[in-house]
Amino acid sequence: MIALPARPLIRWRAWVIAAWAALAVLFAPRAARVQHVLDVRGSNIKLTEASRASDILQEAFPSPFAEYVAIVVHGPVRWTDARFEAALDSLKAAAERRPYISQIVSLKSIGESTFVSQDRHTTFLIAALTAVRGEDFVPDLRETLDAALHRVPQAGGFDVKVTGNPALDYDVRTISAEDTEQAEQRALPLTLVVLVVAFGALVAATLPVAVGVLAITIALGLVTIAARYQTMSVFVLNITTMVGLGVGIDYSLLIVTRFREELNRGLTPVDAAVRTIETAGSAVVTSGVTVIVGFLALVLTTPMTDTRSVGTGGLLVVAVAVLLATTFLPAMLAILGRNIDRPKWLARPLARFHAPTGWERWARWLGHRPWRAVAAGGIGVALLTFPLTQIRLGLPARNWFPPQSESGQGLAELKEMGAAGVVYPIRLVIQLPEGESALSARRLAGLKVLTDSLARSPRVKEVRGVASIRRGMSTLQLAIYYSDAPAVRAKNPKFFNAYLSADNRTTLIDVIPGDTVSLTGMMDIARRARAIARRGTRGLAGAEVLVGGFAAGSLDSQLELLRRLPITVGFILGITAIMLFFAFRSLLVPLKAVLLNCLSVSAAFGLTVLVFQHGYGGRLFGLEGPTEAIWGVAPVLVFATVFGLSMDYEVFLLTRVKEVFDKTGRNDHATMEGLSATASTITSAALIMILVFGTFAFARVLAVQLIGFGLAAAVLLDATLIRMVLVPAIMHIAGRWNWWPGVRAPRPEQEASD
């Protein structure tokens, strides 16, 4: 175990407390502003096909529609009414004056029926954004449009919503920050109740909560500094809060519990604090390092800014929580002494809740029936893990964007119009060799074949590009139509500026998904488009054909993440096993811990598939139906996070078992005593983790729900089936082999004498 300088820390306890207080005051203002430095859309560290397509669009087009928002306008009258036209003209003029808007495309400019709903009361504008735009321009645009609408005579009854990628991103970030704050407000009182019941004292219960809040505050302040050097995802806010509360309170629970034990043995508060650091403090550091390994794996081995930034945030908050639990908290305990048991009147009625007698009976029953316990626990884990075989990774079919947000409601209105695909098209960028034109007869023929191949899918509503400018035109008719290219471009400049570069070398094809196609289906369209492009098309030999857009970018990120997943998993398993080997001087202990942790995480993923992908009980969490797919990042984040967190309980249990074994040399006795001594602490700590993570399972952002539910399920299974059943049962079966090679296995006659 890792040794700490216990006596110097307690001797200088006043300075230790003052230093942490100063850090809290320093970082609190930064933590309050953390959401302003977080990004919603993750990106790949490695250059992908989708990012390459986006780069070419930015380079080849003077005002590319690479990034845009949709302004959805619903009115009390039909769009042909003079009132509606006045409102549209006012909104268009106001938006065009903003510096971050490069151009506006409306029904009037291109005359497409898809821009109008069937009842003729809803239409939308497409606003292309400049390459350089102000941070958080969405609120400014919304305020500008609202002010413009109020200046229009008889504007009552009109409704304007801004949606599209940037607006959705802004709303997700804002809602995530609100959900995090609400989750803290819900979790802290519940956590305090659990701690009061566990300790039977209000003062002792308050200390872990204070440590958790301090850990979050300081870590989020550090995240604002880290954001200067790397992109930090909005999910950092959720993960840091979840993990900070969880581990901060868990580690403090262990420290306070051990401190009270030492006081009850007759030690003075100062000596009890020193002894607590030497025993429980070492276990906390060992546990914390195992959690940090998981987050470090995200930083070092994953390819996405989402996962790397979450790894950074998690690493920071766990490190801060460990330091607080092993320095600040013992210093406070040394000062408080027996005052942690106040008020006395609360301890007596709650004593029965944390008495170890029930756990002692369970430990004895388990010691006499270990094989039965292994069989029952193994069957339970297998049944829960089975749904994992049906997991489908990808963008979820529904609930991906918060339906309560303005952008989510705007997207829903576009979907009702059959125009949601306009916001998320699959984008094919075709770049020809230097000096060639996409409007030459040979290249037009190739573009025509490619366009027709893409349009054959029943999931595709429309394909837009220079080869489909007019429906039903043959290759010969297209060649004749473009024989005077400058004149054609002059007749429809906005279309050609969006779909053909000025030198005619680079062209764009937009594949608009059908009305009923979900984000999951859009990823399938992106796969099919790439398959068509890779087969090669006559007439496009030598051209670079790239498939980009939101769905294609998500597909690239998922594929790269899965490609590196074995490295991430191997890093976590290998480093954790090595650490446990050196901590306990045992070969079987780390192997058993790693295997059982994998089982608990697998069972948690199985539950996640059952609830989210298949929709069983999903309405309890506000889902509109089965998601049909699991966001590919969620399992990676859950695995890296929960593997270390659940190892906490393994370390807490094994530390106490090894302590008793070293004194007595009797494995069965040590296992039963270690289990009965730590079971109450482990179950209380797990309940707190489940409460903290579970509150995030009810968030309004699906990605956060997936992570919160996965973590809560994994901790629940780990603290029940794994730590309270399988681990002690296997330790009884293995006997003294648990501690080999640190302690040799006895000969048969020795076993009999034991």
Notes on the structure:
The protein is α+β, with helices and mostly antiparallel strands and 754 residues long. It folds into four domains: 186 residues, Multidrug efflux transporter AcrB transmembrane fold (Up-down Bundle); 106 residues, Multidrug efflux transporter AcrB pore domain (Alpha-Beta Plaits, 2-Layer Sandwich), CATH 3.30.70.1430; 206 residues, Up-down Bundle (Multidrug efflux transporter AcrB transmembrane fold); 129 residues, Alpha-Beta Plaits, CATH 3.30.70. It has 27 helices and eight strands. The protein has a four-stranded antiparallel β-sheet with strand order 2-3-1-4, with helices on both faces. A four-stranded antiparallel β-sheet has the order 6-7-5-8, sandwiched between helices. Helix 14 packs antiparallel against helix 26. The longest helix is centred in the N-terminal third of the chain and has 35 residues. The radius of gyration is 31 Å and the shape is elongated. The relative contact order is 0.12.
